[in-house]
Amino acid sequence: MRVLVTGGAGYIGSVAVDALIAAGREVVVFDNFYQGHRSALNDEATFVEGDLADAAAVESLMSEFRPDSVMHFASFTLVGESTEDPLKYLGDNTTNASNLLKSGLRNGLQRFILSSTANLFDEPERIPIGPEERIVPGSPYGESKYFIERMLHWANVTKGLRYAALRYFNAAGCTEIRGEDHDPETHLIPLVLQVALGQREKIMMFGDDYDTPDGTCVRDYIHVADLAQAHVLALNALSDREVLHYNLGNGNGFSVKEVIETAREVTGHPIPAEVAPRRAGDPATLIADSSKIRDELGWQPRYADLKSIMQSAWDWHVKNPEGYGD
Q: Which of 12, 82, 96, 249 lies 20 to 30 Å from 34, alpha-carbon distance?
């Protein structure tokens, strides 16, 4: 099986590439280094530099390698930016996915796994949030992922493409060799660790008056290696399943204050924190119900607690205080 991984030099994509290679898959990585890093590439994967916005480059890639499966990670992903520049997300994210799908279907693509998002569920009726929860995207970013899920639905109905939509909650943590290095960095755990490393003066807590036990937002953190394993399981399952929709999280919620306190415990640093006004569009609580993928595919997260996730991130950042450096 030959798997094309878009965004395979990025945070989650690079860990997924490692998991695929460990599982014996042949991997081709396509990346433009918008948020990826050359030093995050796995040497055992074939690498092609390029941009999904270039339809001719995508067609050349697909016709040369003819992958039977795609894992699609490459995307613009900043929720706040998407509210400021919605067409960058509603336009570019969907157009790039369309280029990939159209070319793939012309060249024998059989399976597609989408890196989707919990931002589909801005107004959940139930917590924890199951995969059958009504979809109300919380931003143009979330809407763009929903557009792609709908494209996949119709590609399945009309062309027989098998697909999985994996809706992540908060990806976190690091493996021994792969870490989280974004520019700009917007995720809470690496931002907190930057304070512990002396790279940032303090961490800001956006709102402390939410309807949660300590007033700060509660989120479900899932380790990046557990996400990668879910992708491999979904790819295998598409051998005899047509369509899969799963929410991926630990099923445990941790508040912003709990994350900061866990970071203090793991790092041994005081980590000053300051309350700032709420950010628009931040729900009070988002926790995943991942029982469906656990029951159907036997997925079992190995990093089931916040401290082990935090420790893995701290270990990598201590070794790589400047990130990948490229």
A: 249
231 and 89: one domain?
A: yes
What are the pLDDT digits (tens) for 228-285?
A: 999 999 999 999 999 999 999 998 899 999 999 999 999 999 999 999 999 877 788 9
User: Helix 55-65 and helix 94-106: axis angle, to 10°?
Assistant: 30
CA separation for the pair 200, 213 (Å, rounded): 27
Query: Using omega within 30 degrees of 0 as the cis cutoff, is the peptide bond preceding 128 cis?
Result: yes
Give the pLDDT mean for 191-203: 98
**Residues paired with 121 in a beta bridge:** 136
Q: How far is CA 289 from CA 22, 103, 118, 247, 299, in A?
A: 28, 34, 11, 7, 13
Distance (Å, whole) CA 288 – CA 129 = 5
What residue numbers bound the domain in which 200 lies? 173-219+251-319
34 as an active site residue: the answer is no
Residue 105 pLDDT class (50, 70, 90 cuts): very high
Question: Which among 11, 89, 141, 303 is annotated as catalytic?
Answer: 141
Name the token pair of 218: 């509660």
Task: Give the pTM.
Answer: 0.96
How many domains does one find in the chain?
2
- Whether 248 and 222 have beta carbons less than 8 Å apart is answered as yes
**Shared-domain flag, residues 306 and 230:** no
Crossing angle, helix 188-196 and helix 306-319, to 10 degrees?
Answer: 50
DSSP letters along 11-78, please? HHHHHHHHHHHHTT-EEEEEE--SS--GGGS-TTSEEEE--TT-HHHHHHHHHHH--SEEEE------
